[in-house]
Amino acid sequence: MRNIRSQFPSPEDINDNTETAPSKRLSSLMPGYDKRVAGTLIALETGLDTIRAECPRFNKWLTRMEALQEMS
Q: Which residues, given as ranges, of the chain have pLDDT below 50?
């Protein structure tokens, strides 16, 4: 997984097409990979701060959502 990650500027850039989407890549590395279960566990273990730091588009979107919440 680290090798795949090192080939891209951010995790967001790994999702470049349907054949090489992150879930497809993980399925090839981990037989029995379940995107819904493992994705949730990976996100929990990684932590929101790290995800935000590594994924600028996601961070920008989440920052906008937080600003909307503050306005209400």
A: none
